[in-house]
User: What shape does this take?
Amino acid sequence: MIELKQLTKQYGKPGRLTTALSGLDLSIQKGEIFGVIGHSGAGKSTLIRCMNLLERPTSGEVWVNGINLTALGKKQLQNERRKIGMIFQHFNLLSSATVFDNIAFPLRLCNTPKSKVEQKVGELLALVGLEEHRHKYPAQLSGGQKQRVGIARALASDPEVLLCDEATSALDPQTTDSILKLLLDINRRFNLTIVLITHEMHVIQSICDRVAVIHQGGIVEEGPVTEVFLKPRHEVTRDFIRNDQLSDGDPFTTLSGQPNERTVKITFLGAKTYESTLSDVVRETGVTFAILQGTISKIKETPYGQLIVRFEGSPESVNQTVVQLQKQGLDVEVSS
Amino acid sequence: MFGLDFSMVDWQEVYTATMDTLRMLFASSLFAVLIGLPIGVMLYMCARSTSVWIRACYTVLSFVVNILRSVPFIILIVALIPVTRAIVGQSYGVLGTIPPLVIGAAPFFARLVETALNEVDKGVIEAAHAMGSSTRQVVWRVLLPEARPGLVAAITITVVTLVSYTAMSGLVGGGGLGDLAIKYGYNRYETEVMIVAVVLMVVLVQLLQMAGDRVVRHFTRK
Assistant: This one.
């Protein structure tokens, strides 16, 4: 659906160039929710603004729905942009227009007949749950309501892609969750491709199918959220996950074991999370264990668990336990 | 009181002067806004262009505006006499003062427009571009409506400034309240006439400012 090829963006005058993106490649599939996470200044905002050419890349190509946007003229680009919705961190609503007029804005741009506008805006107001606020001005709404107006406005022109530029970063946690739920609902209902950038791992974990981690203008890690989240390979990714879990120190790497002890990290994914595999195996091998740290939660709809446990027993039986767990399809990593 | 005798005031003359002032004010404000608004929009747009040539145009336009604004109005009236004659056919009277008033006030108003447009949230303009708006649509549907309170305030300031400009029109026989105050009150020591003229101008400015503020409040949604 979206294809970025060798995207490079530099700012400033020759001699004093800052590189925001350097030769970045990215491919986003139709109908998926794709998240881009990165620290501020990593280039994520530039990246998403390049997808509808609000920011023109210095070099490289942007393909959306089979069309090379970078090769289009002004007029054609305007037409293509109408098929790409966008929502913003600060909502960017017209303060001089009512909720109704804000949502009608994209429709009126292409001279949609009045009755059609009335009908479409009515549908959208119902979709985002703001029917009773249609005559209010943005200043009279809460942050979450403003973002709902933003979403309705972005959907008015029936786009194929929705770009979310830090769409929940200005909202409180509860409102964030309700907006994320709405985005997920829209994604399923219209099979709409959603690209979102954020600095919150929580956002990625709640609704994204795939994620890319951006650092210093390049993508350092990319893949299904479950994979990247449970088996982070890059330091930056680990940073995000650590911050999200608010743990101080990882017992897996910091604890030194006694001769008869082994610290292991067990990862459960999917239905296995709720099975009694661990207790079944230790009963069989006669090993005892203590849980040092653990999480059991969900990534989007997939349950997962990650436990750091210390096994105590003879070296053979501990080894046997590890092998048994792996046979049951769990991912087991043994601390060295 | 204070040895003033208002029975000496020729009220017919005061009425004529008031009407002259209002006519000059209305015509010059109208044209100053009609000419200044597009120039202000142009200044705003050119300053933001990525093209080197358009930014060069901005520098030139900005320079011309600055020159017109730095010439004292009294000099402008005299210097513009040939231009005035070419436009309205006469360089004296109420009609003869309108072109210099417009040329004096339009650049001033254009700068105020530019400032008002600068106040518009950049994010909203960006959102309009993202939705596929053309430049024309951005100006008409985003920039001008969003800047409306600022634009009304700019019009108020310009009209009030024009009130004091019209006072100088006496130089070319333009008449009006300012002229009345100088001719009778200052030159002929008829303090009463001067007081009446000045009070009327104060009342006029007060009314204009109040009306302007009211409209600004009406359009403000923040």
User: Anything to note?
Assistant: Chain B is about 80% helix and 0% strand. The mean pLDDT of chain B is 89. Chain B touches chain A at residues 121, 123-124, 126-134, 137, 141-142, 145-146, 148, 219, 221-222 (CB under 8 Å).
